[in-house]
Write a sequence for this structure.
């Protein structure tokens, strides 16, 4: 079965959010903005006066037979994996698995809680820093999970409350200039031009302080949420150093980085090298997968794989994606695309 068809088209900031794994959704054509010459052809941004409050507003138009067929195929496959015990077998594999979300909207609260309840018995919930250390050292002797949330959206406050119920820890990757921003024009510009999404509500610095107090971590997601593959070396440095400096001033330290949009197509070996030159300890993608016990690797050799998911997706679909990734056995040579390691390594030897 075609992997990309199953996972849904890649659109906007999030991977596969068009029809990524849940029920069929649709937004009316009247919600769309006229096409914008600065945006890619397949980018359709719904116009909303108020910040987004549900995944439905982000999902785009998923009417027609294709998503119906895709949904049915995914359900059949997921049920087969469940019935034959492959899901449970996969969850028992010793690994570090990073689950990546962006939001937990009010209508996603119960499904996110249900997911954590489902995962808890089979996994140790560890912090992001512990996850990175275990992957780097190869010391992976049990099934372990950690969580990340990209973009610093306000609904992460709700996620923190639910994570607390399960003593789970997360790393929140944020673009510091948008945290606490109150100017509607700047927020709109950031969302439309940076994230290529409708207007969101973002956390403020009080929210960030509270999640830090609870033992969560904050990482860098650049300053302006650009497609990093298009940036000059000066722009790369500005984005990476600028975000690190602003975060250090506000939260004391920043060790981890996740690039916007998450695909290798929106990154480059030069950008990855700039991340490590800037002093970040880790660099996270949005590419599916997990990390199994291996020999120790150097920090610039590691590209963290993250399991993209939407809390609202059907639980059986999400469990299928997690189980499928759990069975992947990546070697360190496969962390970065072919040929990238030489550029990233530079003169590090
Ligand atoms: Zn992002």
């Amino acid at each position: 079965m075609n992997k990309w068809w199953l996972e849904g088209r890649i659109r906007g900031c999030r991977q596969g959010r068009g029809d990524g794994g849940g029920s069929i959704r649709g937004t009316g054509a009247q919600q769309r903005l006229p096409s914008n010459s600065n945006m890619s052809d397949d980018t359709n941004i719904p116009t909303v006066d108020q910040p987004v409050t549900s995944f439905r507003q982000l999902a785009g138009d998923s009417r027609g037979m294709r998503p119906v067929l895709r949904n049915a195929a995914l359900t059949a496959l997921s049920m087969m994996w469940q019935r034959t015990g492959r899901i449970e077998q996969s969850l028992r594999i010793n690994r570090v698995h990073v689950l990546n979300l962006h939001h937990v909207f009010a209508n996603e609260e119960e499904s996110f809680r249900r997911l954590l309840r489902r995962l808890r018995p089979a996994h140790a919930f560890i912090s992001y820093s512990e996850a990175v250390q275990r992957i780097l050292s190869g010391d992976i002797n049990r099934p372990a999970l950690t969580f990340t949330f990209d973009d610093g959206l306000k609904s992460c406050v709700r996620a923190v409350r639910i994570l607390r119920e399960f003593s789970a820890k997360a790393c929140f990757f944020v673009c510091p200039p948008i945290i606490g921003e109150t100017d509607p024009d700047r927020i709109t510009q950031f969302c439309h031009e940076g994230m290529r999404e409708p207007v969101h509500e973002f956390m403020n610095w009080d929210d960030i302080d509270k999640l830090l107090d609870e033992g969560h971590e904050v990482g860098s997601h650049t300053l302006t949420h650009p497609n990093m593959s298009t940036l000059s070396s000066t722009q790369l440095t500005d984005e990476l150093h600028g975000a690190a400096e602003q975060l250090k001033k506000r939260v004391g330290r920043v060790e981890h980085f996740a690039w916007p949009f998450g695909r290798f197509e929106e990154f480059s070996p030069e950008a990855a090298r700039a991340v490590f030159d800037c002093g970040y300890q880790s660099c996270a993608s949005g590419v599916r997968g997990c990390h199994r016990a291996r020999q120790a690797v150097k920090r610039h050799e590691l590209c963290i794989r993250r399991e993209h998911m939407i809390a609202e997706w059907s639980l059986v679909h999400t469990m299928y994606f997690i189980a499928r990734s759990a069975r992947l056995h990546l070697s360190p040579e496969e962390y970065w695309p072919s040929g990238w390691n030489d550029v990233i390594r530079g003169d590090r030897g």
Q: What stands out?
A: The domain at 94-345 is CATH 3.20.20.370 (TIM Barrel). The first strand starts at residue 95 and ends at 101. Residues 48 and 198 are 7 Å apart (CA to CA). Strands lie at 95-101, 124-125, 143-150, 170-174, 217-220, 256-258, 282-284, 307-308.
